[in-house]
């Protein structure tokens, strides 16, 4: 680990401008030079992929791969990637073999944060019956969520708005269920039993504190986050993983493959050293125009987005503060607008909504970026 402490570091951390931070993040995310990686390797490298909007999540993974969407469906249908609620009560893609580890460490935090609503809906007293009913329905193979909702309704387990959602959430949090194979149109996933879909021990080894008093799995996640999302702060990493800042700070203290930098305000940020080493080589390509889907990790992966998004425009990427993020236009490492798809045209194209006027060159670059978007 490289520290900002002068006693342990021969040189002070580099000071980066907001533009340099944005360009470095694009490189760290794999958006500048998509790698020759399997879909599950992309998910693993990012730590997890925000997947409230499943089609957007598929585009996010495809944008970071040299093969684009090739083999993406198979990664879900073969059980290499699953979707669940690992943290913050938000759906994410996670590598299947790490599902139990995510839930063992972070699941109880979501259970705690939703305890009042669970009590109000009587979730805990219905949970065993809901699990038994769901697993019975899944004996016939993977099923859409609506099929399980109907089974619970037939069993008299529903009857109150929100109960179906919270039963589903609870059974994901205790690793009874997860979302596995893609539906036919790839806009949703079918529910599967974790025990059948993700073979492995009921209890993932390696949760006992080691060295710094932080579970090794948490150290691993913090490493992946800082290397794939950096330059990022301890506060960003803690918010992303829904862990205490003290836990994340302790994990950072044992990492030897991240380095400290600072922003112009003096805030300490962390990233992979190669991101800085390659900045000059990839800077021009990174500075081009990138069209990102809604909920992409480049946007959602940070609590503080001010390095890449002007504060006066923050509300425009999530209108009405309703939690529904729009697709974004990134240019020069900054979020400069939102975009959508033209409808009814013989040849679909992007409909750009820039925060300020875009040059003709950047509009042409946006057209090319649109043509490169992965299509499953």
Descriptive terms for the model:
18 helices; Arc Repressor Mutant, subunit A; 376 residues; three-stranded mixed β-sheet; disordered N terminus
What do you see in this structure?
With 376 residues, the protein is an alpha+beta fold. Among the domains are: 84 residues, Arc Repressor Mutant, subunit A (Orthogonal Bundle), CATH 1.10.10; 86 residues, no CATH class. The protein contains 18 helices and 12 strands. β10 and β11 form a beta hairpin.
Low-confidence stretches: 2-7, 202-211
As a percent range, the share of strand residues is: 15-25%
Q: Could you describe the largest sheet, including whether it forms a barrel?
A: 4 strands, antiparallel
Count of helical stretches:
18
Helix content: 40-55%
Radius of gyration: 21 Å
Report the end-to-end length measured between terminal Cα atoms.
40 Å
Shape: globular
Side by side, the strands of the main sheet go: 9-10-11-12
Quick check: average pLDDT?
A: 92
Q: Which oligomeric state applies? A: single chain
**What structural class results from the helix and strand content?**
alpha+beta
The helix/strand order is: EHHEHHEEHHHHHEEHHHHEEHHEHHEEEH
β-strand number: 12
Write the layout of secondary structure elements.
Layout: E1 14-16, H1 18-28, H2 39-46, E2 49-50, H3 54-63, H4 72-77, E3 81-87, E4 90-95, H5 99-113, H6 115-121, H7 123-137, H8 145-154, H9 163-173, E5 177-182, E6 189-193, H10 194-197, H11 216-229, H12 234-241, H13 245-252, E7 259-263, E8 268-271, H14 273-277, H15 279-286, E9 289-292, H16 297-300, H17 314-317, E10 328-331, E11 334-341, E12 350-354, H18 360-371
Parallel strand pairs: 1-7
Antiparallel strand pairs: 2-4, 3-4, 5-6, 7-8, 9-10, 10-11, 11-12
Helix pairs in contact: 1-15, 7-8, 7-9, 12-13
